[in-house]
Amino acid sequence: MDLCDYNTVKRLLASHGFTFSKALGQNFLIDPLVCPRMAAELEADRNTGIIEIGPGIGTLTKELCKIAGKVVSIELDKRLFPVLRETLSDTDNFELVEGDVLKLDLNRLADEKFSDMQTVKVCANLPYYITSPVIMKLLESRLGAQRIVVMVQKEAALRFCAETGTRNAGAVTAAVSYYAETEMLFEVGKECFMPVPKVDSAVIKLTPRKKPPVAVTDEKRFFEIIRAAFSQRRKTALNCLSGSLNIPKQCVADALRQIGAQENARAESFTLEAFAKLSEIL
């Protein structure tokens, strides 16, 4: 079955009475070149277990099963289960897990499903509306995944892969940079999906760090500082930090002075090192 042929996919979904859910952000990848390329970026082998998030109709899943020892796909939409049973009927190293990735214990899942695997990696075509929460959960859980390859909205990809201290940086840039090295791999046009979304996508690679690039004594406070600083992008970091964290402006101004920042500086100009120093002072 050619899962990259529009008419084939249309007939497949119709035979199961499946209709796309806007609420779940369902846009199935049907380009014949993208999935093999994503799979190759994982650099997996038969000793690799892959967690896939949102298999859709199994187009990417098939490619992952070709290169990995085992693929475990997490799917929230039960309506896709019979579709996947049909499209992946010829694979013997695939397992479907029902659930919401944001609620599942990923460490427990990896321990249970990949006890006989040497490495664990993650791959996904993520719905736009949960991109940041899913990526942050994967990183914060410290899953032990050696590599994470995901497709996201192009705008989000630029934000994830930006350097801290530059105009494109945001709160998620700093947070992701703390946990992983990021790389923009390639762009994917909207015409590669069914149905066609309104925006283009991009595939990014995240390589979790063995050790954070900056030292902080209180990670929770560190991330509070980052979120507060970016809470209103048009305002200065001074006003954002003071207003969001209820800290006297003079105290924030003194802290900014200690790290060599101007009082009118905005959060996008701060490096990860600057945020780390600021969190220690505040």
Description:
The chain has 282 residues and is of the alpha/beta class. The protein has twelve helices and nine strands. The protein has helices at residues 6-15, 34-41, 59-67, 81-87, 106-113, 131-140, 154-161, 171-179, 219-229, 237-245, 249-258, 272-281, and strands at 28-29, 48-53, 70-75, 94-98, 119-125, 147-153, 180-188, 193-194, 201-208. Helix 6 links the parallel strand 5 and strand 6. Helix 10 packs across helix 11. The longest helix has 11 residues, at 219-229. The protein is elongated, with a radius of gyration of 21 Å.
Distance between the termini: 59 Å
SS field, number of helical segments: 12
SS content category: alpha/beta
Q: Topology as H/E string?
A: HEHEHEHEHEHEHHEEEHHHH
| Strand portion | 15-25%
Tally of extended strands?
9
Give a short account of the largest sheet: 7 strands, mixed
Q: What gross morphology would you assign?
A: elongated
* Share of helix, binned: 25-40%
